[in-house]
From TrEMBL:
Source organism, top-level taxon: Archaea
Positions of the Aconitase/3-isopropylmalate dehydratase large subunit alpha/beta/alpha domain: 8-284, 286-410
Protein name per its UniProtKB record: 3-isopropylmalate dehydratase large subunit
Phylogenetic classification of the source organism: Archaea, Methanobacteriati, Methanobacteriota, Methanomada group, Methanobacteria
Substrates-to-products reaction catalysed: (2R,3S)-3-isopropylmalate = (2S)-2-isopropylmalate
Source organism: Methanobacterium formicicum
Amino acid sequence: MSMTMAEKILARAAGLKETEAGTIVMANIDVAMTHDLTGPLSVNSFQKIGVEKVWDPEKIVVLFDHQVPADSLEAAQNHIFMREFVEKQEINNFYDVNEGVCHQVLPEKGHVIPGEVIVGTDSHTCTHGALGAFATGIGSTDMAMVFATGKLWFKVPETIKFDIEGELGKHVYSKDVILDIIGQIGADGATYQACEFGGETTRNMSISERMALCNMAIEMGGKTGMVEVDEKTRNYLKGRTNKSYEVFQTDEDAESLSTMYVDVSDLEPQVACPHNVDNVKPVGEVEGTPIDQVFLGSCTNGRLEDLRVAAKIMKGKQVSSKVRMLVIPASREIYRQALDEGLMNIFVDSGALVCNPCCGPCLGGHVGLLGPGEVSLSTSNRNFKGRQGSPEAEVYLSSAAVAAASAIRGEIADPR
């Protein structure tokens, strides 16, 4: 029976030889992740079940990234609560306030393996499919059941494959590609589908760029984002894990597979406009829009490649006096690499504010909140009303290149 990559992984996890889209399977979970914001809800639900010990402490990863360091008494109490849970359950894979954003730290630390099923109490867990895993976000009560049993049911999703072809132009990146795709099919265009990214353009992308694609699969309704394993994947995994893994690939004649062809040869930098991620326009249509804040970071575009792109544009220039710019690396590893390369000097010299690795203003619950009437240009993944602070503020989404050029100009600008 021909199957998609998603079907093959879920079949393996359920102990089946084969399965098909629409089937309900009970899958064994390989990695379960929770963080400081959703973790307390998961633990409270777990404790109500009455099970004393989690099913396997070595398969659970706990990170603090949303409100770090604690920005309120409630956040501090959540941190204490989770630290006590980690100690009691003898969970060794615990990353306190100094490591960075969960979706960057998990692959860096070798917790993401091709062919495995990864769940997290965060909707952008789909990021990890860039390494050939089936990764998806789940609710806190579902995570409680995973903590207790190590299993979770799934309806096997259909797969939509985005066959991306064409050479990307100057200052056009994977963020522009995924924004363009979301703009074309809409916020619900891939509802509960595995979004598989392929084609020559995807194969030419780095792991970081593929992670940006998969990260935003949820923004078009996807259950997960996925990229087939290749030599780039294997090279990324070297030194990060010594685990063996199984590689799965989609059969082109799989019954549940549909394909959308995407030509990016003439693609311009893209911007998602308020207040929906699928409200996407070429940068030329919004160029000149005044902005108050620029956020360079998040689990979408806070990686070293993004910092390099921005630093190259900003070197020797000054952030506009009308704008405050926050630069937040996605992890401590990225922060240290950026320091070694002198990127942080460029940002500081330009007038940007460099912050500790964390989610920052992305969730609207930590540093860099927007006030009423303010406008932000952000490299993150969501721009819903009130997402980064006041419901009377506006958020535009872009690549690191557009963000850097706009910070200098004091308005949305074309980096080309």
